[in-house]
Write a structure and sequence with these properties.
This protein has 29 helices and no strands. It is mainly alpha-helical.
Length: 628
């Protein structure tokens, strides 16, 4: 029976992948049809991957429950798809069957969310639904006029603003095809190539093992955008390597957790947030991806610098030469061709003015072309190496679709929550309360929003966390004069930071498990290494030009101030010595960081000069000892 379930899961995963590839290449279906088909396949795959009672004596009863729930959910999807034209043209009202369908589907989404990621997110959705149904009984500003169960059911399944809203639409089109793109690239050998490039680039430098984690996680994150996935993938190699070279286990876990978090902040995918952000605020995906470049660069410069200073001050070891691959082995045709093909396909799609989905499809096609060229190269060299092509292709299709289970279920759930937030107007209410309490001060509003973002994002994946805070907190920043792009980037960064911020820091938990150490010291080091990231979003507020790349004085000022700031912070939290007195040294580095971000011409001159002088003094007075 279990074998049958596993084969069924692979078959449905391949079917989902082929559906996504077909619609990205030849055009998406009608919105309700596209979204219902996608959700039906994702739910089917979810039940196969997360069976109720797996490994327990009562698994047969669990299988019956799963079958009933599957029939309810898929039956609802089929009915909505078959009546898509009627729903969009006549706006039908809900009766008892529609109420049963709506709340049956919601229950399935909640249950699969619980199985996939735990209770926190489903509980938040339930609170949102209860607030919509009974919020009229709450006195004061938090109350609303009230909505009956019929109207809520109509909103959920008989419109395109409930379950079938824009978030599920983005998941069923753009996010789905980019997930497949990442899977094809990684299963083509791109993942191993990324790791070897990181080893070659960073391995021999001070703190080489930690820098490998930073570089590798950055490259993985560019195609996956999942902090926890990055930790689980690259961490299994980098964390043991750092421990072998004398890094304390908590530091090794923290480096990987923080570096992997950056993968969600880096274009092109940004944990799917770039696509969702484009949908919410109505600007192009390319604008958001370009705006995210400088903040992501500052993040990695800060982490890279902190790692370097920490390793230099702590006399941590380098990677042995015999573990560093040669460029000749890395740059073999069969290893680099898929990466070149992927980049080439994406570039062709962008320059050709294609849609985002079609561009990603061309990236996949380029990857497959690169794999084919690599196989030809191996045949010419009479090298039998490499995984069989059919198995490689199936693994890519299966892996890409499997990654969509959590994304699809989460965004369906997030869409339910957002629809209730919009229906009740609680987002506007909270924004007004925040602005009122903060007396409209930009920095105070920013601080309040930042804290609330991290609290609301704890324990739930970044994409869902971003959707939640974008609906409730971003408007508060817009009300005090922040541009929509800067406001959404601000809340996105702080929602992402919940991955490494105690007490519920999922990325840290995974890294601590690999490092075989308690999570508390890992979290302490992670906050220290990632300290610069808690300040970068405030630069969006102080330097709006940071998110508008171009040859302008404002952007140049943002680049200079940002680089000086993150470098000073790296020396501060890396423990760089100037006088040998820890307090005096910390205050000196902090002073430079503060001067760097003060929006004044004097700070632009004094910051870089002071930083350069202090870095020279630090290296002259406390030179690093080379450690083998």
């Amino acid at each position: 029976m279990e074998k049958l379930r596993e084969h069924g899961a692979v078959a449905i995963a391949v079917a989902l992948s082929l559906f996504v590839l077909y619609t990205s290449a030849f055009g998406v279906l009608e919105p309700l049809v596209q979204r219902t088909t996608f959700l039906a396949l994702v739910i089917t795959l979810g039940f196969l991957h997360f069976p109720l009672g797996a490994g327990k004596s009562w698994r047969p009863l669990g299988a019956v429950c799963d079958l009933v729930l599957w029939l309810v959910a898929v039956g609802t999807c089929v009915r909505i798809a078959s009546q898509a034209d009627i729903i969009m043209t006549t706006l039908p009202t809900a009766e008892l069957p529609e109420i049963l369908m709506a709340f049956g589907l919601v229950f399935v989404i909640l249950e699969l969310s619980r199985r996939a990621i735990g209770l926190i997110f489903p509980v938040m959705i339930v609170i949102g639904l209860l607030y919509a149904l009974f919020g009229n009984h709450i006195p004061g500003a938090l109350g609303h006029r009230g909505f009956d169960i019929y109207f809520v059911a109509e909103t959920l399944v008989l419109s395109d603003v409930g379950v079938w809203g824009s978030l599920l639409g983005v998941a069923a089109t753009i996010i789905a095809v980019f997930a497949l793109f990442g899977s094809f690239l990684l299963h083509s050998g791109g993942g191993a190539a990324f790791m070897d490039i990181a080893l070659r680039v960073s391995g021999r430098s001070t703190g080489g093992a930690a820098k490998i984690a930073t570089v590798a996680s950055g490259m993985f994150g560019a195609v996956s955008g999942s902090a926890v996935g990055n930790v689980a993938t690259t961490g299994t190699f980098t964390i043991p390597l750092m421990k072998r070279l004398g890094y304390p286990a908590p530091l090794a876990g923290a480096v990987e957790a923080v570096a992997s978090t950056g993968g969600q902040l880096a274009p092109p995918i940004m944990g799917a947030a770039a696509f969702i952000m484009a949908e919410i605020i109505g600007i192009s995906y390319l604008t958001i991806a370009l705006a995210a470049i400088l903040p992501a660069v500052l993040f990695y410069v800060g982490v890279f610098g902190t790692v370097h200073v920490t390793a230099r001050e702590g006399q941590l070891g380098q990677v042995p030469d015999d573990q560093i691959p040669s460029w000749a082995s890395i740059l073999k045709v069969h290893r680099v061709a898929p990466i070149v093909g992927a980049v080439g396909g994406l570039t062709w799609g962008i320059l050709g003015g294609n849609s985002i989905q079609t561009t990603a499809f061309l990236g996949i096609a380029g990857t497959l072309l690169g794999v084919a060229l690599g196989r030809v190269s191996l045949l010419i060299q009479r090298d039998p190496g490499g995984e069989p092509l059919a198995r490689q292709l199936r693994s890519a299709l299966d892996g890409g679709a499997s990654s969509l289970i959590v994304v699809g279920i989460l965004l369906a759930g997030a869409q339910i929550l957002v629809s209730m937030i919009n229906l009740t107007g609680i987002g506007v209410t909270l924004s007004s309360m925040i602005v009122g309490e903060a007396t409209s001060s930009l920095i105070v509003v920013g601080l309040i929003v930042a804290v609330v973002c991290m609290i609301m994002g704890m324990g739930i994946p970044t994409t869902a966390a971003y959707v939640l805070v974008a609906a409730t907190l971003a408007p508060a920043l817009v009300k005090v004069g922040v541009s929509p792009l800067a406001a959404h980037m601000f809340v996105f960064y702080f929602a992402t930071l919940s991955v490494i911020t105690p007490p519920v820091c999922v990325g840290v938990f995974v890294a601590a498990g690999i490092a075989k150490v308690g999570w508390t010291p890992v979290a302490r080091h992670a906050v220290q290494l990632g300290a610069v990231t808690y300040v970068i979003p405030f630069l969006f507020l102080m330097y709006p030009g940071m998110l508008a790349p171009g040859l302008t004085p404002e952007y140049g000022e943002a680049v200079l101030s940002g680089l000086v700031f993150v470098t000073a912070f790296a020396h501060l939290f890396g423990g760089a010595r100037l006088t040998g007195n820890a307090w005096a040294d910390s205050l000196a580095w902090l002073a430079v960081a503060v001067v760097a971000v003060v929006p004044h011409a004097l700070g632009l001159v004094m910051g870089p000069v002071a930083l350069a002088a202090m870095m020279w003094l630090s290296r002259r007075r406390f030179p690093a000892m080379r450690v083998a």
